[in-house]
Amino acid sequence: MSALRALFAGLLAWTLLVAPVSAVIETYEFSSPELEKRYHRLSQELRCPKCQNQNIADSNAPISQDLRQLVYQQLEAGASDDAILDDMVRRYGEFVRYRPDTEGAALWLWLAPVALLGTGLVVLVLMLRRGGAVAEAPVLSDEDRERLDKLIAEDDQ
Amino acid sequence: MRRLKLFLPLGIFALLAVLLFRGLSLDPQALPSALIDRPLPAFSLPSLAGDKTLTPDGLIGEPFLLNVWATWCISCRVEHPYLQRLAAEEAVVIYGVNYKDDSAAARAWLAELGDPYVASIVDREGSLGLDLGVYGAPETYFVDADGVIRYRHVGVIDERIWTERLQPIYQQLRTEAGR
User: Fold this and answer.
1) Is the ipTM of this complex over 0.90?
2) pTM
3) Measured between CB atoms, which of B31, B34, B135 is closest to A90?
4) What is the domain extent for residue B83?
5) Which among A49, A70, A90 has the least Cβ separation from residue B135?
6) Which of the listed CATH numbers 3.10.20.740, 2.60.40.10, 3.40.30.10, 1.10.8.640 matches domain A2-96?
7) Cα A91 to Cα B140: distance, rounded to the nearest angstrom
8) Any long-range contacts for A126-133 (C-beta under 8 Å, 24+ apart)?
9) Is B109 a domain residue?
């Protein structure tokens, strides 16, 4: 039993450790490890324009290879993360970013969850309040109580 | 008021149904071009015929179509005869971008199937394609007389798409240029 548990614990630890490795196909020589870190972060954040839902780090589409190369070249040329992202947006629109700017139509995306949560809370509070008012127990009239006692007495016999 | 509230779920359902039904007819691949109403990106690339270097200034003058094609692109082959008809019968000005292709194969392709292009830009590395925001050939950009990109069509141009959607756009660019 404890051997089985140890096995499960081992497997769990293994999946947690292994999961966040992305499959980049070609390897680039970076002049500094800092650049390489930024490269990985950028290629995870940029979305492949041709694919439906993949970042360019995961995708093997030719366009993703081109974009990875472009990111690499711009990083080595000393461009900042923002400059690289802006350059990509200029070519492909906000579509290429998995975290779009909080501007224009994308603002709705950022605000919608908050607005929905807020509406839900308001509705919940209203319902709870109204529920409290209705929940007062109805009082039986003397006549009804008499009938009820009689019915119970009949039932007991 | 109470009775109206009973219809609330029905209303929400109807709203969702309308939205979802609309979603059925949306193309998830559609990606609006970021370059609409922006000038052509700068480039200086050889022509496929090999006789000159093409730059935006060399192309600009009258409205034209910039058609991204390649010999490895099967849909381009489908589209090709119709582009030839447009160039020959309707005098549509079409420039080509030979995108990430082998130039010898591209020349053979044009020799065999005919050449609807005024000239084709050789974009072997795909750098112009990147600047244009190309994500899959064939793509066709509509450029006005001032060199500003006004429309982008992704996919094959055929007779139905041309007459219904694209011809009016091209005609409008020509009319604007005539003024």
Assistant:
1) no
2) 0.73
3) B34
4) 33-178
5) A49
6) 1.10.8.640
7) 15
8) none
9) yes
